[in-house]
Amino acid sequence: MDMTAIVLVVAFFTLLLLNVPISFSIGIATLIAMLMNIDFTPAVTTIAQRMAGGLDSFALLAIPFFVLSGMIMGRGGIAKRLINCALALIGSLPGGLALVNVVSCMLFGAISGSAVATTSAIGSFMLPEMKKQGYDENFSAAVTAAASTTGMLIPPSNILIVYAIASGGVSIAALFMAGYLPGIMVGLSLMTVCYFHAKRKGYATTDRLPLNVVVKQVAAAIPSLFLIVLVIGGIVGGIFTATEAGAIAVVYSLVLAVGVYREVEVKQLPDILLKSAETTAIVMLLIGASTAMSWMLSFENIPQNISAFLLEISDNPIVILLLINLLLIVVGAFLDMTPAVLIFTPIFLPVAMQLGMSPLQFGIMIVLNLSIGLCSPPVGAVLFITCAIAKTRLDKIIKPLLPLYVAMFVVLMLVTYVAWFSEALPAAFGL
């Protein structure tokens, strides 16, 4: 690694430690590194061009649409109906409320596409209810934080769209289908931990509901869940693109929230539009800055140097892929998912492909890896939201998080070393 690359890395992490926002840390570090080779004006111009070029993608138009549809669904009473549906189906099992928490996070995460929104919507309802039923508040917070990340894999997922762009053309439809099995596996692994923890602690179970009540609660949630069928079915069936699917999701969620559930009033729409615009702007700034840093890394041949270094360590694919996973887990604990995918995909994807891994499998691996980072200290965004809702401290939920981390890591290893989990569904649908 030459001096320019060292300056880039040192400047970036120094800015992060100084609590500079990630997008600005990326951009400023890239500028500092570039100034070592060229003058100020050409450096600024080059960064601006690379940022603009990184945003010049039709596929990226899907992100603001899915962000807006997620905002509308989040305000539209969707979380309450999904929780009631899960309660009706599995609430009477040991650890029922914890299981409901996980299932609700999976369903709402798939609809909203946001781990932060899932944490806020599901956590605000489930955490007080679990505390009322005698669950340890730190365990409840840990479950919510871990489960809220499943929506990053279960489509429609904005981060999978970002990876499709970073990888240079992996099909978004194939990625969406590839995320289902691993996402469900993560959810089931978390539910297994919750089940045995509840059995050991002797948490109370809820009464089994009458069949007519179960049918009513499930029926109330079907319109919300149909959004997933509509979006994924249309994309996989070739009826519309991911971007068009995002626009359709906005229209459907608007009709559902305003016209059917009537949880959102017309006068609230300007505020929802403003919030979605703010979120989209943050995401796009991250994408633009990360694209510039990714270009700088490629210009300095850092991906090639890291690839050569990893392949020199060992010729055993198992060892190298384990090293990549461990590195990404560390990265995910410090860096937001979007810049991490844009920066590290060009670095590690060529190595993975040399070892026989397809870009599709690698995409699911890196997103699952970074999802673990979302609920890992010190930067994991969902941890701080969960702690605020549960009114507890970060250090108190680390211990109950450990078995959940283990469960997620086991699924990560299965996804890493068994291609079938990522490629079976796309192959079945001819993607």
TrEMBL record:
Keywords, comma-separated and alphabetical: Cell inner membrane, Cell membrane, Membrane, Transmembrane, Transmembrane helix, Transport
Ranges annotated as spanning the membrane: 51-70, 82-100, 106-127, 139-166, 172-198, 218-240, 246-264, 276-297, 317-335, 340-357, 363-390, 402-421
Bilayer disposition of the protein: Multi-pass membrane protein
A UniProt-annotated Pfam family: DctM
Domain of life: Bacteria
Main location: membrane
Subunit structure, as described in the record: The complex comprises the extracytoplasmic solute receptor protein and the two transmembrane proteins.
Record-given protein name: TRAP transporter large permease protein
Species the sequence originates in: Marisediminitalea aggregata
